[in-house]
Write a structure and sequence with these properties.
The protein has 129 residues and is of the alpha+beta class. The chain has helices at residues 2-17, 20-23, 46-55, 73-83; strands at 25-27, 39-42, 59-68, 87-95, 102-107, 110-115, 119-128. The chain has one domain (2-99, 117-128). Helix content is 32%, strand content 37%. It has a five-stranded mixed sheet, with helices on both faces. A two-stranded antiparallel sheet has the order 5-6.
Length: 129
């Protein structure tokens, strides 16, 4: 029973550690250790906002830029903690799917498909102060 519990816990941790927020992360500072709770701010232009934050005394710890799924708050917090940041500034822009595009996938023993819903262009800055 102990081994099963340990396996389930390891799978949960591994599942939380991946995703585009983690996979496309580019560090600017390695080994940052900014403490305190992680704050998040969704803005129209993350680059301009992160430059403003740097002028206010924040340090840019790293960035993530990708096109794909919309970032979840839990992913943003987890990556901020891994990077040693305590402030996240991010922006998203929805990119609709091309007319007539569709998708099909298998999972959990069933197939599913339909019209492709589109993606998000995501820009995230991890900062610390």
């Amino acid at each position: 029973m102990r081994y099963l519990s340990a396996l389930v816990l390891a799978l949960c941790i591994c599942g939380c550690a991946s995703g585009p927020t983690h996979d496309y992360y580019s560090p600017a500072v390695v080994g940052a250790k900014f403490g305190g709770p992680v704050t998040m701010n969704m803005v129209d232009d993350s680059k301009a906002e992160s430059e403003k934050c740097v002028k206010e005394g924040y340090t840019l710890v790293g960035r993530t830029d990708y096109v794909g799924k919309y970032p979840e708050a839990a992913e943003l917090r987890a990556q901020a903690k891994r990077a040693g940041a305590n402030h996240v500034v991010y922006s998203t822009k929805f990119i609709p799917a091309a007319p007539g595009s569709w998708s099909f996938r298998f999972g959990r023993g069933f197939g599913s498909g339909g019209t492709d819903g589109g993606q998000s262009e995501v820009h995230i800055a991890f900062l610390g102060k």
